[in-house]
Queue: 3 jobs
Job 1
Amino acid sequence: MQVKYGFGTETTEEEGYEVFDLIKQEDLCTFIEELAINLIENETREKIAPEFWKNFNNRDNEVDGFNKFKTAVRDLYNSVILFLPALRKLERLRDHCGVRKDEDEVQCGGCSQELEQCHCDEIMATFNETNRKLIELDILEKLAGDVITALIHVRIENHVQEMCNASFSCSYISSLENWLDTVVLGWLSRVYMYSPVQDITHQAINKFKQKLLHHLYETYTCTRIDQMFNIIIEYPDSQPAVEDLRVCVQKTDLRGYLTRKLEQTLVTKLLHQGVNTPDVLTAYVAAVKTLRQLDPTGVLLDTVTQPVRKYLRNRHDTVRCVVTALTDEGPSELADELVRCQVQNVDENSPLEDDIDNWEAWEPDPMDADPSKTAKSRQSSDIISMLANVYGSKETFVTEYRTLLADRLLSSISYNTEKELRYLELLKLRFGEGHLHYCEVMLKDIYDSKRINGHLTSDLNFDLIRKQEFPTTALILSAQFWPAFKEETLELPQIVKDHFQIYTEAFEMLKGNRTLNWKPHLGFVTIDIELKDRKISLSVSPTHATIIWHFQERLEWTIEDLSHQMQVPATVLRRKIAFWQSQGLLREVSTDMFVLVEDTPGGRCKDSMTVDMSCEDEESDSPMASAHDQREEELQVFWSYIVGMLTNLDSMPLDRIHQMLKMFASQGPMSVECNVQELRHFLDRKVREHKLLFSGGLYRLPKT
């Protein structure tokens, strides 16, 4: 029998063993083995590997690539198979010399010994015997209970983190309980399995189970509390996680920790200038929905969101953002809430408001509940009412809605109020008809304006078509029902004022004892501009139309001259002129000097085109006075009454002044309210302006 050793020498099997003996005698077994392995590695690295990778160069297509891959694998196999005889001889040499390398040893995963020398059975037998003796002596729990518990606690905490990290779309309580029963308690059972008294074993395991189950709930609850902000933001997709947390909070004593942690998280992540108001409102709405599922009593919601409500109260654009979201045409949670929810008339002052028919299901409020609020009032307040009550009353909310409604009605070219009327009816269900009476009148004004314009235009008795060179229509507003307008001046061209006068005379003929007070800076003007090479049709504001009108009379104007002519401040005028510059009709030839551009640059000709004003940066400016300005005007009305009271009574405390003003404010269809805090700020400002004196808790007028 011929056996091939190495790479080129052939010997008989008998000669081979003689060689083995010689190698073993000279103690060269390890050296020969390493030498052979190095030769094989060098052969593979220098010849076989380069030949293998050479097959993958210049692949033309998928089929060609597969054929090359098949060829490469075949050549690799044929090259490596030549090493097998030498590797077999190396294995026989190891056996003959009694040598086995460390890396080839297969170790037991339990005792870290070679498989042939595994001691696991012996260790388990010793372990079980030791436990049996400790159990019989009734000292196993005393000696090892804390260690076992600590080990299991660490394992539970690691498992909860691995399973539930940033995943809120499914419930984990059942799977965690099952894992505790099978894995953890299964291992624990082995500790007590050799107890001679099985009742003792069951008692010990059940005792451990209750402790471990409580620790499992606590660990899972703390994990979810740390993730609570993300759970709120992802609601309603995170409903399973919220339901898990609701169950666990009832089983643990972590309600106080949840309240403090979540309140702190909301303050840190939301209540700063880096988060805009719509985002704060979105998070607040999500928090309301989440916490209502988590705690149906409403106590947790009332406590946790208190800093958010206080912060929103101090942001000047909160009410406008809420009202805009409520009446926005696009998808909005608040708009859906307005349509979906029904009004719940809650008498918060009634002590007998609990459902008498369901008295058996009654439960007392949690210990952290506010005793000044009833359970039904916390549970029945819907999201919109909660947002409206951020300011303590509905008046501020309704006032802002009036301003926004006025903006929308005045910015619409058409007389279509169907959408606004629908929203108004929904809001009336929320806040009552009395609070929104002014808004009803505003919508009626738009409808009446359409009817009056049509009547004055079509009735030959008024003859507007013949008297006017261009059609003039008007929005006729009942001044006492609309919010205050911004005070702006504008001197219109004489021809426009003549048309206004013609329209006013026709209106006076129609209405008898009523007349019109025009707001020249409001409205829209449709103008046709004819230049040398083009004609442009535009719908612009009266100020823009007046600017381009004057360039019809003079081709060149300075800011100063045009400002004097139009009675418009120079800063405002420059902003308005920027629009005509963007349209290519005006050009600034020198500082504050503008000329009309008749020719299109480059000879480019434009036919008649229509351009809206949506690109104008000041288009978003409201023509109405701000809520702050309107409130200042209302408080100035109070000021005259305050002066009268202090003149007659010499000095008065804050509470007495507030009571007197409430009597005045309760009159009128749109009552004006002023809370104590607001009144204090107003009076303190008058003190700083030296219009009042304050001493000993009393306000008085300074002596003249």
Note: Confidence is low (pLDDT under 50) at residues 1-8, 342-354, 603-620.
Job 2
Amino acid sequence: MASTSKDMVLTFVNSLVPTVRRALCDPLPEVRQAAAKTFDSLHSTVGVRALDDILPAMLSQLNDPDPAVAESTLDGLRQVMAIKSRVVLPYLVPQLIAPPRVNTKALSILASVAGEALTKYLHKILPALLAALSASLGTPREAQELEYCQAVVLSVSDEVGVRTVMDNLMDSTKSDNVDVRRSSITLLCAFCRHTHADYSQYVPQLLRGLIHLFTDSNKEVLQMAWEALNAVTKTLDSNQQTAHVSDIRQAVRFAVSDLKGQDLLPGFCLPKGITPILPLFREAILNGLPEVKEQAAQGLGEVIRLTSAEALQPSVVQITGPLIRILGDRFNWNVKAAVLETLALLLAKVGVMLKQFLPQLQTTFLKALNDSNRQVRIKAANALSHLIVIHTKADPLFMELHTGVRAADDPAIRETMLQALRGVISPAGDKMTESLRKSVYVTLTNMLGYSEDATRAAVAGCLGALCRWLSPEQLNATLSDHLLADDVTLDWTLRHGRSSALSVALKEAGKQVYADPNKEKICRVLLAYLMADRVPIAMNGVRGCGYLFQHLMLTGQLPLPQQLLTPFVRTMNHSSNEVKQILARVCCVLGKTVPPQQMAPELLKLVIPMLVNGTKEKNSYVKANSEFALVAVLRLRFDDEMTQRCLNLLDIGARESLSDVITKVLRKVANQPEGKDEELDDTLIT
């Protein structure tokens, strides 16, 4: 044929074509190889007719019942491809991917010999593979289809091909169809795990996409996303691990933004959920630059927050060791603060699993409690409040903190020591021995009128928290001698300290404190505080009423004390904007913490018109806080049921004013993202 004119070949084409076609499917490989060269000459002479007359027949022969014939035919196609891929592919691909049945087997064999020529058609082939794989899920064909599809994807090694695979499969993992998501993540996982191609430039994109799949509701998708992430992070060396910490943090935030009302990321809660990303954090914490260490500690904290205790369990030692090591070194304060916060989060989550580290953690936290930086001290105090919960012999820790409070000359250190003492008393005051509790009690009551504001507030917080753990006799004595011993002629600092302590006691020990025979007296003292001319004392009166009302509504002890209601809501007319603001903030907390069906109608009827007035105040803080309070009390972020109930409670004038504010202002406020709740208790430092 090579030595014959085109016309002459065309004359004999009807005999040549069947001969070449038969030879391409011959049982002997050397015949098939020679036939492929002949096919090349034939095509060069007769053009598309060679394709039309030979390839469709070979394709249909791929399904021959005799496996030997089908295999020979496939190899014939392979031989043709090796020589003529640029001509054969545009002809074959559309036929192999045409519905209803994508021929994944033939595609996998073509892919193995097509080389880079296949890249041009990947954008058409990949969707067809996903359709075939999706259709086979849950059928006996699934494993075989997956093998063929993987073979096609793994044949890709050139730069453009890798980009096409990444873009196509990552896009398909966002599909609404769960089968398509499952198929695409399965292929992506296979590619990331087995390819010899370099995909390092796609790592940030992969981290973002795979961690986003950790929000998926389908177990198989979650598992494959986890395996893919594991495969990706295993390809990174130590420098790359450190470099990708910020990508992981971004990816986690991106995923969290799509978590509808869940506190945990489903993918992190799989067994060993966070192990694929732990090595990155560990490397950055131990060997990164200071700013990278801080980033990594914060990022690890964010991940811990989103992981269940069971899923964290296998990684506890891996996480805790490096963090303790860092705190032992001399790093700047922000690294220490970030590490302490992460350890506190871990303790809050897994608690008792960290028991083996208790001595090191205690030593580390106590050392940090004397740090020159205030943030480090506050974080250490918070960490101790979680550590105390798993302590079995807690007295030495209480004693150390008590001694620290008494010995501190620097008011700033004293304030954080008191915060730490309060932090351990609140959850575990019952772990203190009687003798120690008494000596702590004496120290606190002696300092209740302390001249320095921050110390006085912190002492009051400690004493208020301690009330929960006192015996009934001790508590009665504390109330009559200190918390309820109100006298207008007293030095104002002592009166302020007592008002703070009463407010905290009602918050943390409402059940024990607001009991007979002290109920009447508590109401009388709170009333006196509401009327006080000193603003900080009046603010504590508002707080104390708020905590009392919260306790009574949550425990179903209605109606609320009548003598307090009107003076409480009338603080919106106080001359100080700070008092007005605290009233609105108290109402906001009540709206968020008390279920709507337990809200006292007598309080709602009085307080809502006052908050409506608050929205018309000149002071922007009072105005904003009143708006937030109404949104919380009316539950405008949820539905209109509570709003309707409140409207029905009001007189016609007040009802119209409320409707007006809802329409003009509150709907808009309710649609804005909810800010972080401010702490109502001013004896706690942040």
Note: The mean pLDDT is 92.
Job 3
Amino acid sequence: MRMRAAVSDFSPMKQLVLDYPEDELLLVYDRDFIYGSSFYLVLTADAKERHLKPVVALGVEVALEREPSEVFAAQKTSEPQPWISLGSEQEIEEESVTDSRPRLKYRISRVRREFGAPIFFSDRNAMETKDGFIECTPYQDKNFSLKQMERHTGVQTIPNLKSSSTQTQWTYPRSMCTQYEPREFSEEKKENCLQSEKLKNFVNSVASRFEIAIQQNEIMDVFFDDWKALSEEDSGYGRKADPHLKEYQSFTDLHFSKEKTISNINWHPTINGVIAVAVTERLSFEDRINGSTKLLLNPSLILFWSFSDPINPQLLLECPDDVFSFEFCPSDPNIIVGGCMNGQVVLWDISTHVEQLQGTRTSGGKNIAANTNALDKVPTLNGISLLTVTRTEKPTCGVVDIHSFSLFHSDKVSRMGVPMENKNGICVQIVTCAPDCCVMFWDIRAPRVLQTMADQRKQKVEEKPLENPHGVPNTFKHLDLTWKPLIRVSLPKIDTSGEYSPLKISLRDNTCDNHTGSNADRAHLNAERSEVAPEYALLRVPSAKQLKPLEDICTRLYAGTEDGELVYTDWKLEKDNDSGRLFSAKPSHRFIIHDGQVNTVRRSPFFKDIILTVGGWTFAIWKEGVTNGPIIQSSCSQKKCTVGYWSQSRPAVLFIGKEDGNIDVWDLLEKTHEPSQTQNITATQITCIKPWIVSSKQHLLAVSDHLGTLHILEIPWTLRSPSSNEKLSMSKYFEKEVDRLVYFEKRREMRAKEKKDYEAEELRKKTYIEMIIN
């Protein structure tokens, strides 16, 4: 009863057991079920005595009749009853499966020589044998869609099952508040405490220390965590460790750049704070054809912006058609060359406007921005565009890329395509490419004509000033109607007929791509960094002692095509032994990596043999001389990549522009699988990126978008200051990637050889088996 409590069979008699007067109870096992239970309990002392001492009468023991009221009968345990058949087992036997006959035995054997032999399948006519094919009809066959009317099934009853669950009641959270009231002394206790001598002595003893502590808290916060503040100080926005690009200035013009896009940008090599942008019509090819008459009335322009006047352009350069690319001459920044959409090459001489660009004009400089007539005061300069002789072979193929005048450092190219020494060190040659499958070399010098002394004296006497009604300088008047390319290099396809269509090119010795910073600042940067980028070192004309030997000149170039291909070829013309004519050799290598047209082919300013290519949804980094493929290739991004550029101060950093207006900053020493940071610059496509070094403490990044707005961003300290031995670390990293490519190529060759050997062995086994069978 103590262990089972209310479940016990004796629990109804619990009180009677507790009231029993003696210490021992009599519990009897009723084996014969006289009272219908397994046990009975004697509840009185007299009944216990009578039960233990039976009465003897006539020599026979007579058992006393037990009173039912004095005995508690426990609950009777049920017993299993015998099975009584009602015929259900016959139904179960009828539904069970029994063997009506002995089971059949089959033995399958095969010739031993056929074990492990190869299996050969052959074609046969399905109509020659019966049931040689199975027809799979494309519609439902009614012969196999019969409805079953009657079915024999067996049913057996089981107890009813019920699935249930329980959970505590959930109460929704609610806002609660509590408030307590402090226990205070009574007014009498307060007065006694304030007047006590103990309190006065305590205040007098600690007053001096308390005053010193208050003074220290006024001077400095003792609870300020210096270590935590040290890390947070450089991590905030605008701090030294802030990695974000900050907006420095922006330029847009509602008149000249309205409904136009920016196709190319370039910083002025020598004048600080001056940047030139080429604006083109934001039209498709079909819209250009339909609106060709209207486009003739709107001249194409190159705008010169200055930080001193962010509202009005300082100079306008007119050209016959939209300019896709333009460059400054490294040896003479007043000379500018541009490539137009119609295939023309245009030359400008801005020497008469240099003082205006330098900010020396004094008339109305402050009020031009607020006056609508200020547009008439912006000087406009026309260029020398040679209409017939500078066109490409395809009128719809514009000049999309122009490389610097200082093409070969201080060397030049002869008319036979042979590199020659340029003793004067003046940059006079350019290289252009267009989708007409040609790369052209040009020379802006006047052609040499043999004259006698008498002819020269006669020419001096009869010499008259050239007429120039449009205000075009006479710098390149000698090229009018006579300018032709020195050499024309075609790009024939390697495996098929036809030619490649180049969009961007990169030459090994073309290190005057873009010059950043003033002369004094560049000299300061050169003194700071011994491993300076090539762009910084080409600002002055090299002397004759610094000229390279001719045999060291590399005549190979990389060309990115409109089909996403990267072509590596030699632009030096070869001579036919039979006819003696010069022709372009086929490219040595062609790589298909990008899934869209290549928009960037640019060499690293720190490594002349490292090239960055951008096209489609990926970018790749190549090493010249490695023909196995790119050493680094990015994964496909969600948005198309539109432009890319190397950092001018950090060898491991590059900038990638996207079509959604974001710029991905890649730090190859930090991450190579994803960009270090992504920052949104504009709401539309980014068209150009060009860095600029103002000083060692200020680096700028020019970013143009599809809507014609030019954004000037300030590069943070973390992206402009190289780490210790960063160039050496990147050099080792590139070498490891080259070793990885070589190892991968060896493994591929080894696997191909193993596959070839395996196929030869299988063919030998097959031939041997056929010989045995025959």
Note: The longest helix spans residues 726-773.
